[in-house]
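Archive transcription. Copying these from loose printouts into the bound notebook so they stop getting lost. Printout 1 of 2:
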Amino acid sequence: MKYLAMDSDEALAPGLRADLLDTWVAATNAGGAVGYTPPAPVEQIAEDLDGSLGRVAAGLDLLGVLHNGERYVGMGLLVSRGSWLQEHWRTVLRVMVHPEHQGNGAGRVLMEGLRGSAVDLGLEQLQLTIRGGLGLEKFYGPLGYRIVGTQPRAIRLSADDYRDEIMLVQDL
């Protein structure tokens, strides 16, 4: 599994969009906390993916991907808030690995790659949020992230299923 940082020129690499769309849909349908709930709304995910790739192509954000030698099987974004007051940090967004490649350290490779990209950009801090109730803190804690806040009931999965949103930060 190889991590690649995609810049504005590489955001349109052949097969990238199709592979990442497949990964996002598969991760959603497997119950991953990647912005949607099953069944995956493919058209909405495609719109979000296109928007993200557009921001990368415009040089606003950085896309980190995992490639298994045949196709792209994971992704994560370093997203800028667009303010010079916040140029020293980025939000880590849409971290996912295709379910077929989970459980073998691919997520760690992706997160370490994103951290390396952040260091290369001269950033001082990374921030991400996770959906409460899934135990994701156990994954991010050993990677150097610490919980800095919780917004109760910030995520509504259904009419009677609310989850906390947990904010984590990593100093670089």
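Printout 2 of 2:
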Amino acid sequence: MDETAGGTSTRLPTPTPAPGDPATVHVIVGSSRARIVLSGEVDADLAADLQEASAHAEATNLPVEIDAHHVTFMDSSGVAFLARLASRSPHTVRVLRAPPTVRFLLEVTRIGELLDVVDDDPGFEVEGSVSAIRPQGPTG
């Protein structure tokens, strides 16, 4: 677990996944919003982790943003996760730095109409700690 305190704006580095790397879900609770960082292949194997991450983020009662920059693949499980989060949140869910494959899915399914999709990462003020939801992979 990484921990940063002090209320400063921090760009949190996330490694670029290689094909075949395990998918990961991280929840970061900040001073003004919660961020879910997705990496790798977001598919049915990650469904339980996505559910856990959304429950954790929703429990904060803060606006939620999804950093999708390092998503290499997304199936209907990922789309359902975003739709569920958007429909349950009292705030507009923001998707940051979505790669073309994710943007395509958001457009085709029209889920993107429920989300605020932005190209830039506005930075993040970390208040607590980064918590990783169990990474998926061949041994996961």
